[in-house]
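New here. Your pick:
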Amino acid sequence: MIIKIKWLVSTSVFITLFVNSGAVCFSQEISSDEIRSMLAQQADFSKQDFSKMDQGKMITKLLPRKDKREVAVLGVIRINKPIEEVEKAFQKTIAQQKRKTALKYAQISDPPTIADMKKLEPERKEIKNLKNCKVGKCDLKLSAAMIERFRSEIDWERKDNQTAVTNLYRKLLLEYVEEYLNKGEAALIKYQNKRKTIDLRIEQRSMTNDLFWIGDFTPEIKTYLEEFPESNQPNIENSIGWSKVKFGLKPVVIVSHTATYRKLNPVQSQILILTRQIYASRYIDASLGLTVLVDIPERNETYLFFTSRTRASALGSRLGGLARKLVEHEAIKKLEVVLGSTKRNANRTPANEKAEAETASEGGSARLFLEKTYMFWIFAFVIIIISVILFSGRKSNHP
């Protein structure tokens, strides 16, 4: 069992999740001293941690959590490169990790169209299981209304109902995204496939209140999220996409909203990417992440921060405590992969850059989508982790 678990972890991908978020109006520049003060207070950074960071070494931490279902991580690294180069290196890191796995994905248009969902197909076993879905007992995460529509709109006696089920699943997710774009977080789903309802709006608000960085430097993000889509702010690029990832257990369909803010100027440049999962077909209750790049011009350095909070019911079960140490260990390892690879990519020579650019010149619009939503890939380790928990639990129950 341990070997299989380790194999699952080794197949880690950094997937396109989603990301909803906000725009930020930075009212003032952020000094190196302010960053250090925040790290000491919120992430318990020690003198040794700051010394390692000053040497250009990565620092990763587990953050305090209020919910036993939650895994919260933080990573930071200082890179002696301009912020634009660090962002480019980060994008390359995510693309490199993406190529290690087979994924289906698509960007969702604004306004959304059914063509955006044409690659999305539920598994045959999922279609079979949907026949017996009811509120409180369903393998896929769905709302009560979605479950009822599968019951009432599909002729389950027909043997050739696969196409009808696939089309309805696509239609339901499309309608959900449309409602989200019109109503914002008020439209976030209530998962009612298990005995306990998971209200995604409540989950996201709770995690936003605890999200690293926001309270100290960008409280406007919280307001933006709560008021989206009415909160119009400049310099924000939003995109919504879906991704289907398979890890050898069961596939996961994720819909996510990504918002990227950029403020680039000679005094201080900042890039903020806030991510919000708006749907996951299994394993994950809620996920929220933030990537921050900020330069300190007088010291010719750029800080890269990544933090995420993810909740999964499996972590709150009686087996969750046994798996938590493994989960947290693997979460940190995956984060270290991102930070370390980003620094190596940032320090590569122009000759290597040219050769890699020629190799990666193919891919067209799909590659462009991945670059636009590179945060999308950063949370794959979360799904791997939750899959491991579920796998471990089932093996324990079935010796």
Notes: The chain has one domain: 2-397. Residues 2-397 form one domain. The first helix runs from residue 2 to 10.
